[in-house]
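Hi Y.,

Following your request, here is the sequence exactly as I used it, all 266 residues.
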Amino acid sequence: MVLHMIVAQSKLVIGCIHCNSRYCEYVSLLVPDRHYSSDDPEIMDRPGNDPDLLADDLKNLRIINRCFGGLRAIRRNVLPLIDRIDTQREIEVLDLATGSADYPLDLAKWMRRLDRNVHIVAVDNNPFMVETARERTAAFPEITVNDMDVLSLAYPDRSFDVVLCSSAIHHFSRRDAVRLLREMCRLCRIGFIVNDLDRSRLGAWAAWFYGHLSTTNPITRYDSYVSVLRAFTKNELTAMSREAGIDSFIVERQAFFRLILVGVNL
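Below is the corresponding structure, written out as tokens. Let me know if you'd prefer a different format.
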């Protein structure tokens, strides 16, 4: 994605679509209401998980990120932001809800190839995720893993060049998701990227079939399907970004039922 396209398109005001009842009914069949309840979290977020099952689930998620566009989407959209940073200065990145640090590791490897100095702070508040992330990033001194709640970050304004959040915003209520977007915008100097799922019945069905064909892990089977039903749509993410007070941003659909939100600080 080219940065000037991000800035230009972010100024557009998206109007309402006036549709007849038949069209609305058709759309509602394709896009169900959001299925979210804080009292019924995804299995991976529940306490008392079997460590072996959870470790295997994280491995399955890494395969999904690698094979179904997650890593590629971040890489393609973060490079134009990084190009705005002086090549002589260290790039500072914050990765929220890092899980097993899949995205920080991929970014660190790319920065090494580009001969750019980077410091990535990866945060998560799940002790198992934090431990796993620290083990996997042990050979990467440019990555620091912290145990922190992404909704209670104490970093000063504009502490990082780029802030990332991948495959996590659907874990939050709409109100908390807006808070998260506002925090990401506050913390970044250059821009931020949200990489998540795009809610649809077709995407949920695809996740269900993939989960049942690729693994017997009950966490992956359940969470992959439920994650799509808990995700936000493009219109919802657009409205939430405006509610968060973000001026310059764009939301785009990606392959494999994904959404990318890129915000830019001008």
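The two ends are 17 Å apart (CA to CA).

Thanks again,
Q.
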